[in-house]
Write a structure and sequence with these properties.
This protein is of the alpha+beta class and 282 residues long. 41% of the residues lie in helices and 17% in strands. Helix 4 crosses helix 6 and helix 5 packs across helix 9. This is High affinity Ca2+/Mn2+ P-type ATPase-like protein.
Length: 282
């Protein structure tokens, strides 16, 4: 554990580096370690000062994956029913059956609606749970160097410029530009789908293209990936929704579950029957 350096003078946070203008991980991969450290006003030995970290958290926000406010299961279930024209038409038929005294028909129609609606709701609920599983890949705690001391802290409090240490079995808490690596191998299957661990280094990457692929960013440790072997040190360059993992999480939230061809046909049939029914009643 390094000895605290109480007299170290920490460079001030650059006011001209707002949250939206941090470089991409691909750009950081093309720069050497010293250039990245100077750009983020940090040091691998002492890390950030507590006041620096607090100031940056106010600028960049917490290191969390932002999610929309979740509705209750009852509200979601009711919405899945009232937004389906075919289901509402059948409910209307059940209501008419009650009015004319056909209780058996009303019960049969209502039971069929509930069964079909429940099956569809369960399928949609499972897809939402798969999105929640992504957030479980982000670790709750990490090892950070601040004020010259190595400590264990909540990953939520990480900011760009923090110095983090990781070893075999750890998950990376943010997008990190590796500054030191010792036989370091990362499992990036959660991000890229590649099953084989990727060897990591601290050396700058050659500019082979305008935008490096994930596998070409061999000096970047991405949020949510797993350290399979070795250990290393890195400087946080991206946090929260600004990470590569956070971008995927945001895209998955924006994607609506596509309706099947049968559901589309049923919606169309329900609209046509509704128009025809009102025409006959008129």
């Amino acid at each position: 554990m390094p000895v605290p350096l109480k007299d170290h003078t920490y460079p001030p946070l650059k006011p001209e580096l707002p949250r939206g203008q941090l470089k991409s991980t691909s750009e950081y991969a093309l720069e050497d370690v010293q250039t990245v450290l100077e750009a983020l006003c940090t040091d691998t030995t002492t890390g950030l000062h507590a006041s620096n970290a607090m100031q940056r958290q106010g600028s960049y926000g917490r290191n969390v994956l932002e999610s929309a406010e979740e509705e209750s299961l009852i509200v979601k279930f009711v919405k899945s029913i009232v937004t389906n024209s075919m289901v509402m038409l059948l409910f209307g038929s059940a209501g008419v059956s009650v009015l004319v005294g056909n209780w058996d028909d009303a019960f049969s129609i209502t039971l069929a609606i509930l069964i079909v609606s429940t099956v569809g709701f369960v399928q949609e609920y499972r897809s939402e749970k798969s999105l929640e599983a992504l957030t479980s890949l982000v670790p709750n705690f990490c090892h950070v160097v601040r004020d010259g001391e190595l400590s264990k802290m909540l990953a939520d409090h990480l900011v760009p410029g923090d110095i983090v240490k990781f070893a075999t079995g750890d998950r990376i808490p943010a997008d990190v530009r590796i500054t030191s690596a010792n036989h370091l191998e990362m499992d990036e299957s959660a991000l890229t789908g590649e099953s084989e661990p990727l060897t990591k280094t601290f050396e700058r990457m050659p500019a082979v293209a305008a935008e490096l692929t994930f596998s070409e960013r061999r000096n970047i440790a991405f949020m949510g990936t797993l350290v399979r072997h070795g250990h290393g040190v890195g400087v946080v360059v991206r946090t929260g929704s600004g990470t590569e993992f956070g971008k995927i999480h945001a895209m998955m939230q924006d994607i609506e579950v596509p309706r099947t061809p049968l559901q589309k046909d049923m919606d169309k049939l329900g609209q046509q029957l509704s128009v025809a029914s009102f025409a006959v009643i008129g």
